[in-house]
């Protein structure tokens, strides 16, 4: 080790406090960077695991390929793995007790596909040869008790045909008027049961899934199959698949969008824009926070050692050697801080994930996955490279500045303080308001702008980081709240395929239970009304009418769908009272009147909440029923808008685009229902099934009682029970998890800022030891000394807030616009966090200044005047 590096090492040892604070800053920065990357990788891994369980482990599927055409796909250099499958279509399930699922849906997979596709075996084994089949565990529960493992089953395959004689698509829900035409029979032996496939839960497929074994060797040349692939480079999937499909002659293709989305690959520009913007903001904030704290440490170090550098230069040290000594200092601090930072980051995230796993275990248990700690060599190397780059950038400017100073200037420190003309002049008002101590404090800040600026910049960065991340949390939770609307009930119940008498009896038995605190029996009919353009809100005019999404009639009016909704007498009375209305005013069947809910949510490219109509209470609307090809005119009636509100009653959700909800009494609903049925050739069927919504403190216990009551009813009936409370608990756990990570991140950001401020202020005060000794020798009292420290603290805080708050607000607006790519809500400024920030800035400054100046109060004046900074 040469003499210059030895002096550098000695300087670090002598200035232990600054060295330790700098290492702490590097540790915190490294921990934050490593922890952020590790956390992102761990959660991405979890979502990828879930997507594989629900949608399969493949990137794209090519449809309708002949056996010889599949070779272009399977042998393509881009293909990492390929599996074969095919859909044989529907087969009659004559024993089905589900009115909307009278079929089997028959698929076939080759051996590899059973491992790659989302198939979860619950009993038995996977098919291993042609003629073996796996069936959904729902089949025995829905009338197929005879279909046991080891039994032989014959499927009467065929096509679903509509009234016009056209074949219906596979994913279209069941239609009462459709017919089934048998085209062939296929026999299988049942080898096992599988869990209900995920696609059955999200689509309205009218058949229970069964999957047979596909033997490629048994296919005839013209039989079509589907090929699903994993690409070697997933990021090229959207470019390579269309080209491969065209050359192979595929009838169609699609992507496993859910899996690709969680791998960070999406064609949705809004999702990409939001993800990229938020990622860029987070990276910039981390980079700025880390660079500032480390840069200030090196700038202070160079400032303290400037006279030392001058003496070294005067004895023959070259500018290159002086630069290298600063870089050597950076390397030593990095070697000490980076490994500890990586261990701290990985260890902290590991402990956090173990806690989070317990919080979300119920949410992810159905997928049989876990939140794993993902630490790869790439993450470690990326962290080292990133922090190394930060240290280099932070050390570079001070190193260049140190090497560029001439020996005489460095020894005299003539450039440390520059005063030109009226630079330090203060107004008379300053002395009048704050006295001589305030004037001295302000003059010192003006005289020593570089150190003043470093402290203000440290505070500025801390303010911007704290408020920016607070805004991020605010917008993230607002977006989540907008997507998952507050649900005021705990359970919802539907008795399907039950007669009106059975349904009424079933619901009454439930509402009589002691556990039920509040309930609504929601019935609905849909009607339409032709409105003028001016009756629609500006949002609908701009986004629907102007874009030709609404068709106009001959009079230039546009149709709006009205959901006429009844809640039951008890709940309707409660709802009217909550809105300050008299429920008796809405029971007149001769003068129909309803409550208009003027609030809608659209789930298009953005999720937006808006008012759909510009209609006031007292206006009358002409409403008419919808026709299903009947020759008679549609029934119509006039209804008065008795009140307009945006509050939703129990069991009623916001209407979708182009429609609104109209809440009516039971008497008015019955009268409208009679009008709609009048002169109709068949029952009016434009509404929703009657649904029961329940409020209770024990949703699990009440759900068990409801299932017990349902056993007394006909086997042809089916029960649909939705436990909202369980979903709410999952959401609350999710919000808790998000809070843990985001507030943990804010804590790290704040610690970095505090470290930066402490390092900057305490060092600056220590460097002014001689200055304070001179003032004390001229008669400065301890009280006056305290005043100077307090005034400087105030000036630091005010200047930092003057710059920090406007920039923070601008970044908040930027974040708001980033979230606005997917969600639409009013701009929110985190006022509470801003007030906390203002208070925190002054508290931190005062504590740091008092701590740094405490040692100077009892200094010997002569020693201080003769002293040098080490």
TrEMBL record:
Pfam family, one: FtsX
Similarity field: Belongs to the ABC-4 integral membrane protein family.
GO molecular function: transmembrane transporter activity
Keyword field contains Transmembrane helix: yes
Lineage, highest ranks first: Bacteria, Bacillati, Bacillota, Clostridia, Thermoanaerobacterales
Keywords for the protein's UniProt record, in alphabetical order: Cell membrane, Membrane, Transmembrane, Transmembrane helix
GO CC annotation: plasma membrane
Protein name according to UniProt: ABC3 transporter permease C-terminal domain-containing protein
Parts of the chain that traverse the membrane: 20-43, 273-298, 330-353, 373-397, 456-477, 740-761, 793-816, 828-850
InterPro entries per UniProt: ABC3_permease_C (IPR003838), Macrolide_Exporter_MacB (IPR050250)
Its membrane topology: Multi-pass membrane protein
Domain ABC3 transporter permease C-terminal: 281-407, 745-860
Keyword Cytoplasm: no
Superkingdom: Bacteria
Main location: membrane
Cell location: Cell membrane
